[in-house]
Structures are given as structure tokens and as C-alpha cells.
Amino acid sequence: MRQKTKNPLLALKKDWQLWVMILPALVYILIFCYGPMYGIQLAFRKYDYSKGLTGGDWVGLRYFKQYFDSPMFYTTMKNTFVISFFSLVGGFPVPILLALVINSLRQNKLKRVVQTAVYMPYFISTVVMVAILQIMLSPTTGIVSGLLKSLHLIPSSVNLLGTPSAFVPVYVISGIWQSAGWNSIIFIAALSSVDGQLYDAAKVDGASRLQQVIHVELPAIVPTIIILLIMNMGRILSVGFEKTFLMQNDMNLTVSQVISTYTFNVGVQSGQFSFGSAVGLFNTVVNFVFLILANTVSKRVADISLM
User: Which CATH architecture has domain 57-301?
Assistant: First the structure.
């Protein structure tokens, strides 16, 4: 029997309260996400102050070619990929493990204390976070750098914030510490929906706590893991501008100059608005391609996708 197509107007009339609730979010997205897309054309025009945003001469892909031919193309791409890759590999599993640990706590009071403690770093602003790093990693008075030097894990003369080889580890580890607790919320929510009868059946079968995690809890959150992994792949080149820019200095510039900071330097500080727009648009297109590829692979392999 052929299923009737649901009338959108009837659905809107029936669930109008729900649409009213999400209306502010829709307005926000339209204004601040889709509205600025009107300026994409600046990447294909030679910007002229006297003619405005859309009055410049059409130059096509000139600024894209200029970026591809510049010596900064390889540097910014490599730095962005390296930071994104290690942030994903190092940071993505930690919230999952943290959620499993929190879920295994049996005392509700202890669970609330742990949850609050691991959530709090997320609410520290990026500026304050980098200031904390500068204080704790100072080569002369830093607590963390002094501890590492006393344990002979790093040379006594090294500056962790100025050494190029230390920039990525500091960026990734501090990012994990700040966001792992907050990112674990969605996994904790997924674990809370696991049927208690599955735990009882596993205990009857003699399953240990580790076996319950492997055979009961992990399968329950696999769809959530895959969806979040797909979404993270869509931000593979979107390294946070604020933190990278604030941690950047003349000594680590060779590894800290990423696409977002380069776009700011050439687009805003140097006044090359068309060139900066082209670099930013290229970054967005690459992220979109990674998102589509990850979604396609997930749909074919695990039959789980965003659409």
C-alpha cells in the first residue's frame, strides 16, 4: 500500500510550538551564517574601495592561483593539517574514554563532582587559557616547565612556547584538557539510554566490567561516535584562529602559521581583502569535500550518515 505524503502545512500547523522554539536559532543561522555568503563574490573580484563590495572588476580565479603559487601555500596547508590531524587523533577518543569512566562510577555524588571538575575548563576563555599556558610554561618561572626540567624530560634551556617542535603538543594537550569534559556530555547522554537489562544479562553471563564496556556500552554509542567523527572531518582545516594567533610568536611562526591566521594577516592586516577571501573560501571548500567524503564512506561501510 502506498504511503501518503505528509502535507508540510499540516505538519507546521500541528507542531507550530516546536517551530516557534527553534525560530531564534533559524534566524541566527540565516543572518550570521547564510547572510555573509553574499560576500563570497569578493574572492572573484578585484576589490575597489570606491566601488564597494560588488563593484570591482571580475578576475575569476586569479587570487586562488596566486595562493596556490605562493610559497605560503604548502606551509599553511601542512601546518593546518598537522595540527588538525593530531587534535583529531589525540582529542577525539579522550571524551569517549572519559564518558565511559564517568558512567562506571556508582556513587552519584562522586559522579557529579567529577563531571563538574572536567566541565569547568571549557568555560575558560581562549585569551585566559593562553595566558595560563604562558604562565605555566614560562622558561624561568613556569610550574609545568620547571617540573619537566627537574625530571630531565626537556632540556633546561628550552622554551616550550618558543620551540617549534613543542607548539603542536602544547596546542593539542591544552585543547584536550579544556574541551574533553564538555565533549563527553553527548556520550554520557548516549550511555544513559542503554537498557539496564543488557547489563543484567551480561552479569548473568559472567561478563567483567571491561567486557560490559566492550560488548554493551561501546556498541550503544557507536552511531554517536560516527556522526561526531563525520562532523569533525568537516572541520579538518578549521584550526581555531584565536588560540593559534595568541600562541603565535616569531620563534614558532614556521609551525603556527595556519590558513586562518594567514587569511587574517593578508586579508585584514595587509588590506588584500580579495586575496584573503579567496584563501578563506578555499579552506571552506576543502572542509566541505572532507565532510562529503566522510559521510559517503560512513554510509557505505556502517550505514550511518548525516543524510
Answer: Orthogonal Bundle (1.10)
